[in-house]
Amino acid sequence: MAPFDKQKTAGQGTVLPRHIAIIMDGNGRWAQKRGLPRTAGHAAGAETFRRVASYCRDLGIEYLTVYAFSTENWKRSAEEVSAIMGLLKKYLEEAIEKMRRENVRIRILGDTSVLSGELRGLIERVESIDSTLDSHTQANLCVNYGGRDEIIRAVKAWQADPDRGELTERELSKYLYTAGMPDPDLVIRPGGEERVSNFLLWQSAYSEFYFTDTLWPDFTERDMDAAIASYQSRNRRYGGVK
Ligand code: IPE
Ligand code: IPE
Ligand code: MG
Question: Once rounded to an integer, what is the mean pLDDT over residues 19-48?
Fold first, then answer.
């Protein structure tokens, strides 16, 4: 039996997270430990993402948001960056084939304007299929994503909008990449580091965090179970008393 309660859903006023976010970290170290190039770690990490995304869909998680490439990751070698972009291309091509069958909506969150024309074309195709699906699960891939960058963009977009309302938290949220989505209930970071690294800064204001030393390519369904079980043991107070 799963170590957490699969019956509990947010809709029922209980505690299966509606939105899980993951900082997919540890690919490079996973490869290094095996004497492989870092790019082999990214390929293994991409497989883990496929597996974990299917598992979340099967559990009935509504939103899964993963950090695939940050606004700071351009500091890496050209070879590593291009390997990651190649994996993204492969994933999007596959998604175009399989999205209808698997019934998972896919969104890319981040500044995609600097990606290659080919990638932008694939993202457009994925998002056009997306709007025709009636899925329970949405997978958000954060690519060239930075939390601070997102907030600055949102403020600028709000400022430029002739129909803008008064600047409130709710108003600004409409201009974030995550507009219309619930905030993440649970943020998971594998790979042993205990930091946010510019991920979902605005949205994780009241998220529960779960850190594990497991490197992302080694992350399994059982690790997800353990994270959800930990989440279910938390007392979310939102600054109040409960
Ligand atoms: C996460 O793994 C993937 C990206 C940041 C693109 P890393 O590549 O950061 O792996 P480590 O942290 O070096 O092990
Ligand atoms: C965070 O991991 C970014 C992604 C997982 C895409 P990093 O490996 O880039 O983070 P730092 O450098 O350890 O903070
Ligand atoms: Mg890392």
Answer: 98
For residue 42, which atom of ligand 1 is closest to its CA? 3
- pLDDT at 197 (0 to 100): 98
Are residues 206 and 185 in contact, defined by beta-carbon separation less than 8 angstroms? no
Angle in degrees, 0-180, between the axes of helices 78-102 and 117-130, rounded to the nearest 10: 20
Number of neighbours of residue 163 by Cβ within 10 angstroms: 4
- The atom number, within ligand 1, closest to the CA of 84 reads 6
Enter the DSSP assignment of 63.
Answer: E
CA dist., res. 133 & res. 181, Å (int): 16
DSSP reduced 3-state for 69:
strand
0.70 exceeded by pTM: yes
Contacts with 116 (C-beta within 8 Å, 6 or more apart), sequence order: 85
Indicate the pLDDT class of residue 134, thresholds 50, 70 and 90.
confident
Q: Ligand 2 centroid vs 189 CA: distance in angstroms?
A: 10
What lies within 8 Å, CB to CB, of 81 at 6+ separation is: 73, 74
> Measured from the CB, is residue 20 less than 6 Å from ligand 1?
no
For residue 58, the model assigns a pLDDT of 94
Provide the β-strand partners of residue 124: none
> How much is the pLDDT for 131?
82
Mind listing the domains of the chain with CATH numbers? 19-232 (3.40.1180.10)
Q: What are phi and psi for residue 66, nearest 5 degrees? A: -120, 145
The answer to whether residue 8 scores a pLDDT higher than 60 is no
